[in-house]
Amino acid sequence: MQTNAFIKQLQDIAKKCKIDELCEVLSPLLDYSQPVAVSDTIRGAFTDTIFEARDGLASCIANPEALQVTELLGIMELLQPRQIAKMVAKLHSVESTAEIFSSPADYALFQSLFANLHTLRLYISALEQQIWKHKQSALTDSDRILEVEVCEYDASGLQPARLAAVLESLHRLHALIAKVVEDKISKLHIAYLDSGPDFILGLQVGFKVAEILKTLFQQFWQKIRFKAPDEIDRHSDGMMKNLNIIQHIARHEKNGVLDAETAAKLKTAIIEEMINLVSIGVLLKEYEQEEKYERKKLLIEKRDLKAVIFK
């Protein structure tokens, strides 16, 4: 699992398992210096939150990758039904937290849950600060990060020649888009690399170029994902129609910003680079688990797309 994907899984698990909310509910119950009355409001808040956390955990473990992370961090053990039942029953049997303090076993039950959840909060925060945010620390106000994914075809790793082809194609596509949107400042930099089942490139580019590239990848993939290579005609109106970047070029041509020949060359070059990138297994990074398998399967089927189209 890639670093970014791991952090996102952690954040999603923390949200669904109500880690922050549970810490907030538990904290005042564990303050030795200031015992508090256990009101129905406190009982209700704890009971509702911990059962919501348990429901959230159930939804997490239905996802294989999230299950892997919850097992790794021991979250399933923290929210065991038997332990939850003991804590709920205890809160409904006492009038003050002083009664919890007077029983080492009861206090340990609540303190252990709080300590482990608080440690998880600190762990997630540290990862965000030291890894994720560090990756974007060099960004200027005018730059954005765009993540693209390079498909792992056969578990043999990403060969240097293929990586070079990916980078060269991305460089050409960036130059074409920057020319269309008249962005003379944007430069393509590799902000970070991440590996796992597939290979992630974090591309640092100008804001306008990033938005155009993101939309182009999304729209182009929607157009071709269910088509066989021999069903795709790079010169057809269907291939170019409704792509925002193509419409942008058409407006420039209409307004006299571009002449007809330059506009036609830009359209063709952009479509050909997109065909090339799909042929070598490059797509915009997506995080929806439900689409992941289908995307990869369809992308592998497009492996010969360039050879078929340019034969």
Structural overview:
It is a single chain. 64% of the residues lie in helices and 8% in strands. It is α+β, with helices and mostly antiparallel strands and 311 residues long. It folds into 2 domains: 3-135, Up-down Bundle (Four Helix Bundle (Hemerythrin (Met), subunit A)); 143-309, no CATH class. The chain has a 4-stranded antiparallel β-sheet. A hairpin with a 3-residue loop joins strand 2 and strand 3. Helix 1 (3-16) packs antiparallel against helix 8 (104-135) and helix 9 (160-180) runs antiparallel to helix 13. The longest helix has 32 residues, at 104-135.
Which key phrases capture this entry?
311 residues, alpha+beta, Four Helix Bundle (Hemerythrin (Met), subunit A), 2 domains, four-stranded antiparallel beta sheet, 15 helices
Describe, in short, the structure shown:
The protein is an alpha+beta fold and 311 residues long. It has helices at residues 3-16, 19-26, 40-61, 64-73, 75-78, 81-91, 97-101, 104-135, 160-180, 207-224, 237-240, 244-254, 260-279, 289-301, 305-309; strands spanning 143-150, 189-195, 199-206, 282-284. The protein contains 15 helices and 4 strands.
Number of strands: 4
What is the 3D shape?
Answer: elongated
Share of helical residues: 55-70%
Count of DSSP helices? 15
Distance between the ends? 37 Å
Q: Determine the structural class based on helices, strands and strand pairing.
A: alpha+beta
User: What is the H/E order?
Assistant: HHHHHHHHEHEEHHHHEHH
**Strand portion:** 5-15%
Tell me, rounded to a whole number, the average pLDDT: 84
Poorly predicted runs: none
Number of domains: 2
Strand order, largest beta sheet = 2-3-1-4
